[in-house]
Amino acid sequence: MQRILVTGALGQVGSELVPALRTRYGTDHVIASDIRVAQRGAGDEGPFQLVDCTSQRQIQEAVRRYQIDTIYHLAALLSAVAEQKPQVAWDINMGGLYRTLEVARENRCAVFVPSSIGAFGPNTPTDGTPQDTIQRPTSMYGITKVAGELLCDYYHGRFGVDARGVRYPGIISHVTPPGGGTTDYAVEIFHDAVRHGRYTCFLRPDTRLDMMYMPDAVKAAIELMEADPERLRHRNAFNVTAMNFTPEELAAAIRRHMPGFTIDYGVDPVRQAIADSWPNSIDDSAARAEWGWAPSYDLLSMTADMLSHVSGGMTLTD
User: Fold this and answer.
1) 98 carries an active-site annotation
2) Which of 99, 187, 199, 313 has its CA at 20 to 30 Å from residue 51's CA atom?
């Protein structure tokens, strides 16, 4: 892996994946790209290319200009936004992936594509959801994720494209603001806790979902792409997880540091319906067995680290 292109590099995952890749492989070997121009301090520390992933020509130009051999394709609309704009979500999530895989086929590139627990649906086993199970999502985001998983499998089986990916749970980050996901509450809650000492959650207090801290999400992407392909029976759409909690349990973890923190609930029916269609927990034993996946953060260590960053290191008191 010598020359890497990251699409959607200014999004939640890309904002932290790009620096990690540059530390590992060298700044000039990792080209960040997005449909919008990077602000100063965001992606301007290395090569940056404007790329609209619905344009195969633009992807092709970037791959050939920088002699790319690996693409981390992150450009997509997230769950809540995709439900508001389903036609746009299809064009971006599926059209962008198809064009990226076509460029990868033509230029012999490896591709990392993130899927999601959104690829599951209400008929999926809800507890300990297995790697291989029924997938009948009811959201446009989920539909594009299932279709994307199948398309990646097809391009590997039919054309030999080294396409790999994980099914991310909710991802928590202090670097970028929430981007329209159903699990955004788990990011918003920290900012509101520090600024206001309270938070109004858009999911019910008992909504149980798997989550992951961003350093683990970045680690999973890099480790999977570095894994020995001979060990990968699934290759694509590996279940990965790190922790499991409800909004009420996350609030309790925050109160260990901020005893006066309070939470109330104003449920958003759209996002609640999406969350209710997802598993309560997933089984990531395939990822652990096939490429050694193991998270570094649990609920308590993630909460402490998030509060430290969001508060700017100030002492948190009631």
Assistant:
1) no
2) 187
